[in-house]
Here is the input.
Amino acid sequence: MTLTADAVLQDSLNQEVYTKHMSKKNKLRIIPLGGLGEVGKNMMAYEFGGQIIVVDAGIMFPENDMLGIDYIIPDFEYLRKRANRVLGIIITHGHEDHIGAIHHLIGEISAPIYATPLTRGLIEGKLLRNNSQHKAQIKTVQAGEVTTLGPFKIEYFHVSHSIPDAVGLGITTAAGLVVHMSDFKFDHTPVDGWPTDFAKLAEFSTRGVDLLLSDSTNAERPGWTPSESVIGPAFDKVFGEAKGRVIVATFASLISRVQQVADAAAKHGRKMAFAGPSMVDNVKIARRMKYLDIPEEVIVPLEQALNMQDHKVVLMCTGSQGEPSSIVGRLSAGTNRQFGLKDGDTVVLSSHPIPGNEESISKTINRLLRRGAIVVHDGIAPIHVSGHAAQEEQKLLINLVRPKHFMPIHGELRQLKRHADLAKQVGVPEENIVVVENGQVVELVGNKIMLGERIPGDYVFVDGESIGDIDHDVMRERSQLARNGIMLIDISLDKLTGRLLHEPEVLTRGFVSPEDAENLLPDVRKRVMDVINGGGLDNEKDIINAVKSYLYQETKRRPMVFVTLSKA
Ligand SMILES: [Zn+2]
Ligand SMILES: [Zn+2]
Here is the structure.
């Protein structure tokens, strides 16, 4: 068949229309809901043609000034409005900053969860503890497998990290191939003997990677992150020198560390016990699934361990970040119910301070020392290595994958920016790198990357049963109360004359010492009476302002001042 010139023209016009149409449609939206501009609560949504997949749903632990807050979850607003268009929740590994918010998320959207066996086990344990197992539909996937969800083809590949069974993702849509590198390191001798899948990364590279997203946690650390295997000798030394009990604190989900402590315990003839529900649960799940290899005779119940000779015991628990409610936190305060510290106990804090926790960890260490414990932390012995890639590994990843575009994820802005610099150093053109924080949508379209709109990406505070009812104003009030205390002023007036029935009663809490209060209160009463006698009565604000400015002038502090006014 021959085509007339007209037909050729028509065909090429069609093609042009089609291409235009497709390029407009072939838009992948990358929506950072958490973990960009902060450490923790990692969560990313990918949207193509209105359909969405979610990668990870983590929590973040509160900072010291976030009083009474248990933890923080991402803002699900964007997903909530499109709940029926979410096709799946893909989880990269079982750490809290990736799975911690799942039980909140599945209350809002009903998409199935995809996870590797260990990650699935840890998620199920978490759902059971939160009574939400009935809401979740979980599908097991293995590294090397592929899942197709609507327009998304998702390839799982193994990465080494500080927990077994972690994966990275290759996400293919008509907009191109995106590699989502969640937490990883290039550990050649990992505890579980399963290094990162370099071959898969190389294969992606041959196919052509349009965008690489990669973990920035350690972007400020030069060199290579040491292998997990360097910890072995350090634990060996601690166990060899300890005269009494060894108490090792770490994250409940740092499964690789549990294996290393178990190995040291077996070698030194100590029995091992676990304290705390999350630690006990996770170890049970990981052992049952054969991700932990601990001989039966090494493990004893906690009650039994507490009655054994001190030098025969190692206890594992949570609290390496100085969290007051954790076991180590309670041990340091002398408020742990099941057992207390003994002279000669060696407490090993096997983790690195999460930014913002340094102060509370330091206080915990001092309290532990005061109670007679020997404290070993990563500042004095190599009993912890990071699970995250350092600069040389990050550069190696970019060189392996050779992405057209690069977007750093997981980290505060300083780490994201540093990671962007590294990408530039190894040849990604500056205009192809995009550094954004939570809530800034990025679009991959027609082989170009551009910024989309801003969506809500704020903190949602979880405080006991209340989720999201606490906003920044409440937090500000709490911290003001905690820092400066309060003053209550009770005023009784004669209903008819409007005169004071008696001197105002003034009460303070958490503001100044009783002696200082004695000195201040007469003047406070006088100021209150001045305002009332000056006719400022209609306005309680006048009283509050007068008192506040007087207190600030005298003490340089700003307590919260409340006035109660009654007429009799
Ligand atoms: Zn992790
Ligand atoms: Zn993480």
In short: The radius of gyration is 29 Å. The CA atoms of residues 113 and 274 lie 29 Å apart. Residues 42, 95, 97-98, 183 surround zinc ion (ligand 2) (CB under 6 Å). The first strand starts at residue 27 and ends at 34.
